[in-house]
Write a structure and sequence with these properties.
Structural class: alpha+beta
Shape: elongated
Distance between the termini: 32 Å
Oligomer: single chain
């Protein structure tokens, strides 16, 4: 019986090639889209899965509730909290701390120095928390001794070539010697932790104690509850429930002098990647977004449903062709169950062909999607069992869903009615086909409209006035404190070259992490706790970055009083305080500050993080004895190459030991929004595939329906109907249902767009014109899809048309 079903299926494909092509290609594109989206979702959900105790490991976050802040979670906490947690709470098994990373010079003997791009320091128990594999060295002791360092395999090969690195001595830019105590496998791409070198926190403790006055009784910063500074992780004892635990830890910090505006909360380690979009002061740069998982999962299901609808629609539309076949089979004794089995077999075999084609399409598309998403998507030994199970599941489900209704409907024909030739597809069958067409285009139009809103928001991000001009701005970072001594020399030299329009030095620049400090604005109650972002600049920095003054003036080298005691604030600070004359006000730092800082200017609001967060109050102070950490230089139009060549030459003269390294401000800006941009591109891709699959189905349905109306067309032509009249009749018959789909799609598109835009503090308004544009696109596509078939039918010779059937 099965062999007979297969033979009938193959014969059916040979006789109806276009029908088979539409069904197989539509299902293949839908299934390939599902596989690709599954790989993306699987990668997103795999973060931190390599760690044995991931379910008991948490990141310790701080919530800053002070006035002037957005009451957001902060990715760092007090340095002393980590060691204090296991001592104070039996629920905490252990805790481990890290520092932020930074570019660090490393030199081995007389070899050329290179940079570790991200050197971070960690507690000795780091490798008990995170199961990263050491190729060489002992994970239990690698970070115990001061001035020990672990390198990743790639950095080790760059530094030591073919030499055995273990036990070797490397020197940093400050002249400190470090012993290589371990070589680490390169970090996988599905972890939020990023570094290529790992030093020991005992090094920082040793340096901090050495720099303290001999008679000091104050704890070093690593042992202090004064200041939120360090990423910290805690591992819970088995079976511990965290309910109410945040409050207990917060109360413990109060006992150690932490102000009331700071609360402690715990974030599960496996939630860090997808659940940290609101976290600021966060070293995690490869954040995902859980809402994107739901979005892409929904897109995969909808695309597959559209492909299944195509198959169902075409199968039911061709019911009149197969009615006689069913009638003959029933007359010769075939049972209804056998006929259902035949049609389900055809559906499953069609799905098998489509699945085979989808694997080819997936293999071809994987490199493209990996580039688009910025993730290494692949089918490997680790995810092969899950992928295999999904393929089998998809084969069975798609095969059954696509074929079940046609099988039941076709097997129910009455043989006598069919063989007499009086069978005709009823209103029920037509209503189903119309409903399926409306469903397909409702989903497709909603996806097009939502995608257009996503793209419009992304364009808004890239074109919005951020309060500074990021184009043509070269950034040079001082990777060691010793470099800052010559920073003004570098600034003055570059400033004198014709390719540079302006050059300034700064503690930091927008797009990077600023510091925060407590202030007391004049006239505000002393009990109020205000926390403002803060950074320091030279007088040239604000003009270099294209920032404008809303009131007052910038710092000036001509005014000796500008070296200290003065400050610039932003418009948001003025607005939150309700000040009418901010230039007559002062800011005080701490209860012992009786003099305060005179406000000399108000800078126009600028986004120092991104438009996902509201702008907070910012205070800008002058660089005093510290020349800064970064140099920003605006390059004149068309002179980038000359500017880079001169900057490198000057750098090599001033800092001969340090390789020339630079970045551009606009590139860093793009990196800040890289996840949003890649999400938009992926949604664009799969929305286009959805409309393609829907049009394939519409093309097949239009072809077949037009063929069924051949005799009608001949009669109309004989009765005097023009070609244009016949074409418009056939086109309108389909397009009116697409118009109905547009009406249904708008609420769906509005809901999806509003949910996605809710993740931005600064966003566009939902634009009905975008929805109208999506509707017009769908109508035009549907008209073009049906038009070709209609023209061909309308140009038939009436005599041939009347002989049809």
């Amino acid at each position: 019986m099965l062999k007979n079903h297969i033979n009938l299926f193959l014969r059916h494909i040979r006789r109806h090639k276009s029908y088979a092509f539409i069904n197989i290609s539509g299902l293949a594109i839908g299934m390939s889209s599902c596989i690709l989206i599954l790989l993306f979702i699987q990668k997103e959900l795999s973060f931190e899965s390599m760690h044995a105790n991931v379910d008991r490991t948490y990141r310790v976050l701080t919530i800053d509730k002070a006035l002037g802040t957005n009451n957001q979670r902060v990715g760092i906490t007090y340095p002393a909290l980590g060691p204090a947690l296991p001592e104070a709470f039996s629920e905490i098994e252990d805790a481990s701390r890290l520092t932020f990373g930074g570019q660090t010079l490393l030199k081995f003997r007389d070899n050329p120095a290179i940079y570790a791009e991200q050197l971070r320091n960690a507690d000795p128990n780091f490798f008990e928390f995170f199961d990263f594999e050491l190729i060489q060295g002992d994970s239990k002791t690698a970070l115990v001794a001061p001035f020990s360092i672990v390198l990743t395999e790639t950095l080790s090969k760059r530094l030591f070539m073919d030499q055995d690195p273990l036990g070797q001595i490397v020197t940093d830019g400050s002249g400190d010697d470090f012993t290589i105590t371990g070589i680490l496998e390169d970090l996988p791409d599905n972890t939020h932790l990023q570094f290529d070198a790992l030093g020991s926190i005992t090094t920082l403790a040793s340096q901090a104690r050495a720099n303290q006055p001999p008679d000091s009784q104050n704890p070093i910063w690593l042992e202090s509850f004064n200041g939120v500074r360090m990423p910290t992780y805690a591992r819970l004892a088995p079976g511990v429930n965290l309910l109410g635990f945040d409050e207990r830890v917060t109360e413990m910090t109060r006992d150690n002098g932490v102000p009331e505006n700071f609360d402690i909360t715990f974030q599960p380690l496996n939630d860090v990647h997808l659940g940290s979009t609101d976290v600021i002061f966060d070293p995690v740069t490869n954040k995902g977004d859980r809402s994107n998982i739901y979005v892409f999962g929904a897109i995969a299901i909808l695309i597959l449903l559209i492909a299944i609808v195509n198959y169902t629609n075409l199968a039911t539309a061709r019911s009149t062709d197969r009615a006689r076949e069913v009638g003959l089979r029933k007359v010769v004794g075939c049972q209804r169950s056998q006929i259902i089995g035949q049609f389900l077999t055809e559906s499953l075999l069609t799905t098998c062909f489509a699945l085979a084609l989808s694997l080819v399409l997936t293999w071809l598309a994987l490199p493209f999607l990996s580039d688009l998403s910025g993730m290494n998507l692949e089918i490997s030994a680790t995810n092969l069992p899950e992928i295999g199970f999904f393929l089998v599941f998809m084969l069975v489900v798609v095969g059954l869903l696509a074929g079940l209704y046609p099988a039941i409907a076709l097997s129910g024909f009455e043989p006598i009615t069919v063989l007499k030739g009086s069978f005709a597809s009823g209103k029920k069958g037509r209503a189903l086909r119309v409903g399926l067409v409306v469903f397909q285009f409702t989903i497709s139009i909603a996806m097009i409209a939502s995608t257009a809103m996503v793209q419009k928001q992304l364009n808004y991000i890239q074109t919005r006035d951020m309060g500074y001009d990021r184009e043509q701005v070269l950034l040079l970072d001082m990777v060691d404190n010793s470099m800052s001594a010559e920073l003004n020399n570098l600034r003055e030299t570059l400033e004198g070259h014709s390719s540079f329009a302006a050059v300034g030095t700064s503690g930091n620049v927008p797009g990077r992490t600023f510091g925060r400090t407590r202030v007391r604005p004049e006239g505000m109650p002393e009990d109020d706790i205000w926390i403002w972002s803060v950074f320091s600049v030279s007088p040239e920095t604000l003009p270099t970055l294209g920032m404008e003054m809303a009131e007052g003036r910038n710092f000036s080298r001509e005014m000796g009083t500008d070296s200290s005691g003065v400050v610039i604030i932003n418009e948001t600070a003025v607005s939150q305080l309700g000040w009418d004359n901010p230039l007559e006000r002062r800011l005080y730092q701490g209860p012992q500050d009786s003099t305060g800082l005179q406000i000399i200017g108000v800078v126009t609001d600028f986004h120092w993080t991104g438009i996902h967060q509201n702008i907070e109050p910012v205070m800008i102070t002058p660089l005093n004895t510290n020349p800064g950490n970064v140099l920003a230089a605006r390059i004149r139009k068309g002179q980038i190459q000359q500017a880079l060549a001169f900057a490198e030459e000057t750098w090599n003269t001033i800092y001969p030991e340090y390789p020339f390294s630079y970045s551009f401000m606009d590139t860093e800006f793009d990196t800040l929004y890289s996840r949003d941009l890649s999400t938009g591109r992926i949604v664009n891709l799969f929305s286009s595939l959805a409309i393609l699959i829907a049009c394939l189905g519409l093309f097949g349905l239009a072809s077949y329906t037009t063929l069924q109306r051949t005799k009608e067309i001949g009669v109309r032509k004989i009765m005097g109907a023009s070609t244009n009249r016949i074409v418009s009749l056939l086109v309108i018959d389909f397009v009116r249902w697409v118009v109905l789909a547009n009406i249904l799609a708008w609420p769906l598109a509005w809901y999806a767009s509003s949910r996605w835009l809710g993740g931005f503090a600064y966003r566009i308004e939902i634009d009905p014109l975008v929805f109208l544009g999506a509707s017009l696109i769908a109508i035009v596509i549907s008209v073009l899809t049906v038009l070709g078939q209609s023209l061909r039918a309308a140009h038939l010779n009436p005599a041939h048309a009347l002989r049809y059937e």
